[in-house]
Design goal:
- The protein has about 525 residues and is of the alpha/beta class.
- The protein folds into three domains: about 5-170, Rossmann fold (3-Layer(aba) Sandwich); about 190-340, Rossmann fold; about 345-530, Rossmann fold, CATH 3.40.50.970.
- The strands form four sheets. The protein has a six-stranded parallel sheet with strand order 3-2-4-5-7-6. The chain has a six-stranded parallel sheet with strand order 11-10-9-12-13-14. The chain has a six-stranded parallel sheet with strand order 16-15-17-18-20-19, sandwiched between helices.
- The relative contact order is 0.10.
Amino acid sequence: MTEQVTRAKALVSAFRDRGMKRMFGVPGGGSSLDLIAAAVDLDVEFVLCRGETSAALMAAVSGELTGAPHIALTGIAPGAASAVNGVAYASLERAPMAIITDAREPGASTNSHQVFDQAALFAPVTKTFLGLDETTTVSDIQGLMDAALTAPQGPVHIDLSTRSAKSLVQVGPTGGTSVVKKDLAEGDLDDLVRRIEACRKPVLIIGLEARDVSVAAQVEKLANHLQCPVLTTYKAKGVYDETRALFVGHFTGAMAEGETLNQADLIIGIGLDPVEIIPGQWTSDADLLTMSAVADHVMPVEPVAVICGSLVEITRQVVDQLAPGTKDWTGVAIRSLRQSLSDRLALRSSEGLTTDDVVVAARSVMDENWRATVDAGAHMFSTMSRWTARRPHDVLKSNGLSTMGFALPAGIAAALVDPTRPVVAFTGDGGMMMCLAELSTAVRLGCNITVIVLNDGALSLIDVKQQRLQHASSGVRFPQVDFRSCAEGMGCPAWQVDTLEQLGAALDSAMNTAGPALIDVHVDPSGYVDQLEALRG
């Protein structure tokens, strides 16, 4: 049975039927109001954010966690421009979402007030564009969502005017949710299996495409079969349970993991996306083979074998076809590699609390149900190293874009997606200042999130790089902000701490607080210089 509805309602309904639970944004006075009205009618929550970048980040993270593209909406021109960084996150982190921008009416006045080419603005960071008008059909909207969900997943852009939003379109049953998958299609699986069987010291590197729980299960079976070291990228943290004996640490493309890779005679990348690897020379002499959902990845070194398609199916067939056999790795050797990498990343200071201290203290009292979000900055190395993850998406971090101002919006989205899992957001003071207003959003929504601000009065990662260049200190340090007062001014309980004893008491209080809480931790940044040297050389 078909009916006529507004295109705004058809649009929201189509996304809802794919699994979207809520939209995020800062509305303008145009089509965004029609979209919000449609969301009310369709029982889709609209989350009013304080900034468009945060709204786009929340939509993207919701897409990552649920597998369903979520909508971020903005007003025309300044609202659209303000969302670009969040959409860039979705692009480089492979997150399905849609950015919907208010548009001028076709044939409107040629006055240039608030007018620029919004499609051109988003073109470099979106997969496709739809200027939704009176000719657009529901099939066009379905095709847009398919594009967002096709590997590599990412954002799509819709321009929508008020007149187009109110125009009527014929709709019928959608058939419910759908998932875009790619079957095993390209590559010589037999050759790949032979190469794995022939090697003696393989190493597994797990990337972002493997974050599906069904892929993670097959990865565990393959690791158990090979009894070899396992590294994950930051985005894939938790895909392989980090409490297991085969886990060594994280792969970033830096020097730190070289001790492991240099002992390998075969590196097996599963779901590894080149966007996850920091720029630099590939130093391992071992052959690389890759299993991927995407056929045209350009890796830092040419793989000797590539197979593309459904990672669930590829990994299942590889596990099933591998002949029994033992490799040359020993448990002692793998434990030694893990300890060596952990020691290399240790953050040392004689002047006060370090990020290591803070993260270890938090992890010791927050059980496995806690999910962590991590901002960009010098603190991220310790946070990613010291916070143990056991499942995909236990930790959320911006890696491909590595944007600051991520942890709090991502934490809000995660708390909304699964209110049964409390969230701890680790952020530096610089990143926190970029999205501080969203703390009021967390308060309004009652999000179960504890924000830990690692406060050292600097853009510490840039400060370290400036020091390594032996430049005079300039432009990267600032007076420490009193985040406790800021939080309390927005109705958020907060504590300021300088010692481990104070931190322990604050963690206990924050974890027993309904809704959001903030801990402003004064940390010593002096160890970051040596830590970055040990990590990247």
